[in-house]
Every structure is written in structure tokens, then in C-alpha cells.
Amino acid sequence: MQNQSALMANYGHPDLQFSRGQGCYLYTEAGDAYLDFTAGIAVNCLGHCHPHLVSTLQTQAETLWHTSNLFSNIPTERLAKRLVEKSFADRVFFANSGTEAVECGFKMMRRFHYHHGRKERVRIITLAQSFHGRTLAPVAACRNPLHTEGFLVGDGGFDQVPFGDLEALRQAVTEQTAGVILEPVQGEGGIRPVTAEYLKAVRALCDEHGILLMFDEVQSGMGRTGYLFAHEALGVTPDVLASAKGLGGGFPIGACLSTERVAEVMTAGTHGSTFGGNPLATSVGNAVMDVLTDPGFLETVTERSTQLRAGLDKLIKRYPKVLAEHTGLGLMVGLRCVASNADLIKAMQKNHLLAVKAGGNSIRLLPPLVVSPREIDEALNSLEKACASLPV
């Protein structure tokens, strides 16, 4: 009993335990190094213990930790202004996670129509195989039985249509529809980007019916695709956007961004978060922005993506009984498997390479955006050894 974890078992019982991280590597207590292509599920966008993030957090920890939103603070105001300057948005609400940012967006979409006298517009349309978080509204939105069983009462006010099916989406819009939420690149669903043509048609449909379009860029945002936000690559602008994960580079933070016409309905008292906008989190967020907006940084992300994908093309040809294709944008890479994705991940771990499962029998390769050419080659070498070891 002494070695039994006191944690709840909702994450299972992981075999690996890490005591420290540095750059693109995680280390066990015994000193074994693992190349981390999970990046905390796209969270550690600048790797582990990035010196600029560490020094920023240390300085802020000696200055101001928390004031609540009864008062303003400099790091939070600065990060909000920078996000507005670099995006479509006019306003920002800070939370602690991606699911909280999504929840804020859901409330804003419904409140927008309520504010304008359209109280019947409360339903939100989502895409199948989407993932928007683990609180009650997001699990209702996504309808994954693994996440809803024993929790969900009713449908939560959400309608769902097949991924990429524009006609089904068109048919789902009614006089009760408040808006549409989608991921420009589905993460849990198997690293599936929507097409630019589909996204433009969805934008036009929303405009036609006077409903709002929200993007969940919790995983695809903050430089992951070679753009600050993935929708920039697809040429379509939302009304509302949820960001998190890479925004804090490992420190918990979420943000809901919106245009002024949507944000104006969120008057005093309509929404809040005790820790949202905490100066520790927003200071680190500013440090992340320093790096991501440094001239040439996002171009380097694209270069590393090109290198990784070229290597994957070779492995797919070499191991057609293990690997089928790669998908995604930038360094948000999906690798669809022919063999079991779980077996491949285990084989990768034996070769000291870490990856994440996804839907569609895929794995996710989500290296830190600071990954080097040498580390890309090391990952490809480990992946090849893993493929060769599988009994197919």
C-alpha cells in the first residue's frame, strides 16, 4: 500500500515517471532520456525549462502572484493587448485552461443572441470526432460516449454533424441555432484539418443566418502550425476563438478571444474566473509571445515540419504494414497507422521516443517548436526502430 498512488485512477496507471525536463527531453529519476514529441499534448511549445520562460516566472514570482480581477495588473493587460494586435480579436478573457476558454465562448455565443432579443437562439452546432474539453458543456458538445456516460443529462443544447459535410451543417441550422464551433485541425479526432473551401463555406453560412463562428485553437494555436493560429493558414476569420495549451508554454492559462460586437454583450458580472488573468500565468504568456513573434521563428517551425514530413514519407513507403499516411499542419502531425497505434506508441517508448494517441488509429507527433534538425533525425530513427520491431 505504501507505493500505491493517492491520485484518482482516471488517468490509469502510467508506466513512466519523469523527474525533470530540459529542451526537447524528459528524464527519469535514473537519468534515462526520452525525446518528447508529446510536448505535454502541445503545451510545452518551447520545450522544457526554456530559459526565457524560467527567468520571467522567477522574476514575477518575486513581484506579484495574485490580486483577483477586482484589480488590474500590468502583465495581464500587456498580454491581452499583444493577442489583440496579433489576431482578429478586439477583446480577450483570460481563464485557466482550454475547456474554460471554450465554456466562455459558448456563453458568449448564447448571450450575444439574448442581448439582441433572439432568446430562442441557444443551440450550438459541433462536428463529429471533435474535442473541446472535459467540463459538462464541452462533453455534451462532443458526444463521445467515453466522456459523457454517467455525466450528461439531455443534449446540453448541442447539435452535431459529420466532419466536413457542408450540406449536413446547412440542414442543421435552425431558428434556434446560436453558432458553430469547430477545430481548424481536429486534435483528438486524428489530426484532421478542415479544408479552406469548407471553412470559407461555413463562414458564409454563418453570415447568411446571422449566427456566430467559433474556432477551438486550444491545440492548433500558438505557432503549432507555423502560424500563430491555424485559421490564418486557411484564410478564414472567426467571431470567437479559444486558446490555451501553448499559450503558457507549460503554465496553466486559457484565453477566449472575440470581436468587439460579441465581447460587448459580456457586461460586468456576466462571467468571471478567480485565477483567470493571474499575473504569474500572463507573465509567462508574454514570454511565450516574445519567442513566437521573434522574426523568423515561425518560418523555422515550417522548416522543421518539412524535414519531419519528408522523413515520414520515407518511413511510410518502407513500412506499409505499419504506417498509412501523415496528416495535419506544421508541427501538428498525425500519423495514421495500419498496425495498432497503441502497439506503435509502446514500441516508440522502448526506443525512448514519446508520442500521443489520437482517433482514427492515429498517433500525434507534437514536438516542441524549438526542436532541432538533429532531434528530428533522432525521432525518425527511433520511429523506424519501433516500426521494425512490430510483428506485422
What does this structure look like?
The structure is a single chain. With 392 residues, the protein is of the alpha/beta class. The chain is 38% helix and 18% strand. The chain contains 14 helices and 17 strands. It has helices spanning 39-42, 51-61, 74-85, 98-115, 136-142, 145-148, 166-172, 196-209, 231-234, 260-263, 279-292, 297-318, 341-350, 373-389, and strands at 20-22, 25-27, 33-36, 91-95, 123-127, 158-161, 177-182, 185-186, 192-193, 212-216, 240-243, 254-258, 323-329, 332-337, 353-354, 356-358, 362-365. The strands form four sheets. The protein has a seven-stranded mixed sheet, with helices on both faces. Strands 1-2-3-15 form a four-stranded mixed sheet. A four-stranded antiparallel sheet has the order 13-14-17-16, covered by helices on one side. A hairpin with a 3-residue loop joins β16 and β17 (362-365). The protein is globular and about 60 Å long. The model has no long low-confidence stretch (mean pLDDT 96).
